[in-house]
Amino acid sequence: MDIYSGHINKLIEQLSRLPGVGAKSAQRLAFHIINMPQEEVEKLTRTMLDAKANIRYCKECFTLTDKDLCPICANQARDHKTIMVVEHTRDMAAYEKTGKYEGVYHVLHGAISPMLGIGPGDLKIKELILRLEKDVDEVIIATNSSLEGETTAMYLSRLIKPTGIKVTRIASGVPVGGDLEYIDEVTLLRALEGRTQL
Ligand code: ZN
Fold first, then answer.
1. pLDDT in tens, 60-107
2. Distance from the CA of 24 to the center of ligand 1, in angstroms?
3. Is 118 helix (H, G, I), strand (E, B) or coil?
C-alpha cells in the first residue's frame, strides 16, 4: 500500500539516489523540503542548476572549478614542479586543509577498478602524462589505500618511471581502505612527509 502521494514518492526516490542517503534520510529530507518556504526551495534548486551549469574542470589539474584555471593552478607562488595525484576533488580539499602542501595537484576522477569496469582510459591519466612533458620534479601519488587506489598507484608509477621523473607514494599512515577525505590533517601530513620513492 502506498501511504504517500505520487509526488512525495518521486521526491523520496530521487533523493535516495544521492550517495550516502538511505531510505530513511531520503524520507526525512523529502518532508523537510516540502515544509520549506517556497522561496527557499527555489533558491536551493537554482543553486544546484547554477552549479551544474557553471562548474567545469580546471584545464590543468582537472579539479572542479568556476574558471579555466583553478585558484591553485593559477597561483604562481605554488610549486608547479611537484604534482600530487589524487582520486577526487574532495581529496585535494583534504590536503589543502592541512595548509602545508606547496605543490599543485592532478585529479584523476576515480581509480582503476576492473570490478567496476573502470580502466585507465576512464581516468585523467593521459592528461597527467601530458603535463609531465613540462618541467616536473616529482609526482606524489596520493590515491586511497584501497585495492583500487593501490592498483592505480602501481599503474602510474610504471607509466611515469621511464620518464626519469621522481615518483613517490604517500606513507601508509593512511589506514588501509581509508578514504582520504575522512582522515584527520595530522595523519595526512604524516603520510605526506613519510612518502617513499617508488
Ligand atoms: Zn587546477
1. 999 999 999 999 999 999 999 999 999 999 999 989 988 889 999 999
2. 37
3. strand
pTM (global) more than 0.70: yes
Backbone angles phi, psi at 75, to 5 degrees: -85, 110
Distance 65 CA to ligand 1 centre (A): 8
Q: What is the CATH number of the domain that holds 28?
A: 1.10.8.420
Please give the distance, rounded to the nearest whole angstrom, from the Cα atom of residue 74 to the centre of ligand 1.
7
Residue 36: φ, ψ to 5°: -75, 150
**What is the tens place of the pLDDT at every residue in 102-123?**
999 999 999 999 888 999 999 9
Report how many domains make up the chain: 2
**Residue 127's CATH number:** 3.40.1360.10
